[in-house]
Sequence to fold (396 residues):
Amino acid sequence: MPQATPRTFIFILLAPGLFLLGRYTAPGLSRQTAAATTTVAGAARGEHAALPAREEKIHANTDPVSVASEPSLQAWRQKLEAQAPSPAREEELLVLLGAWARVDPLAAHAYARKQLTHDAQAQAFTTIFTHWAEKDAVGAWAWVQANEPEEHSHLRAVLVETARHDPALGASFAASLVSRYPEQAAELYVYVLDGAMHDGNYTAARQIASEAIMPNEEQKNSLLNFLAGQWARYQPEQAAPWVLSLPAGPVRDQAVDALGQAWADIDPVRAANFAVTLPPGESRQTALRQAISKWTLDDPATASKWVLQFDAHQDFDQAVAAIATSHNLISRNINLALGWAETIQNPALRRESTTTVVSNWYAMNPTAALDYIKTSPDLSTEVREDLLAKVATQHL
Fold:
């Protein structure tokens, strides 16, 4: 019969117990804004502050290649196509198109429209409009608006590149489209933030996000959440004061969540020390859970010892639940896992965590787990009945 509680142990072994949005890979604005911003916050899965390797290579080529006329490029292309395809030649084509776009963007655009198809054409257009916006942002934007306003991949390329060099101008471009695409307003501004943050200009990004006039509160929140999460991946200590300076309420709460999650991903120890300084409440609970869940993956003993230094409090409940239900702890020290679960303050969460621990125990050692369920004085009648029903289902 387990009697131990986590307050009697210092060193234990635990194991795994978890959004934005990096740079978009799909060009259209037809996605729902919420999906777009979470993709950017999590990518996450990608990082907002780095162009794809191919684009970065093209950007680094600051010496324009001599491509003054379409026939010369076509002749090069024909020669290239006589050989077996390879990624290297595709990259070389994009380099040439980027250089051509700095000399004559409309000619480069016409060539890509006529000669390329599908993914190759899409990549070429991104390259062309990126270099065009780098040289003449106003001209590139005006041309897109007058000639291909529904080609949203062009809008994205111009917005990102413009904001890299002139964040305020990029923001003004995005603002001019909010009335046309109200459902995608946050996505448009995310493009601008991507550009502004490319070289670490978080001051400009913060100003853009704070001053953006959005159609509704939900999109405003999603924009702030995106910035909080992305900024935290690179400068969490600098991002935290800005997040905490937001007006109290749902906007700040969601931004704190985004900050905490991103920070926990890169440095769970510092994230935990930040989380514990937050005022008691839901945001603190979430931030602690995020940090402790990640911390236990890297150093479970130290994470547990850190939790033990604080008095039992409901704000630690979710973090303690993450420790208690760790598969590694259950498999190595079932008494300690149950002890952690017993210290959870919230009755519903304590019951849920205890059920999870015992169910996992039953999967590994049915006889011992069933004996505990039937005989332990620590279980209420209700929890005992729930567990018996659950293990009966597992046995079937």
In short: Residues 19-259 form one domain.
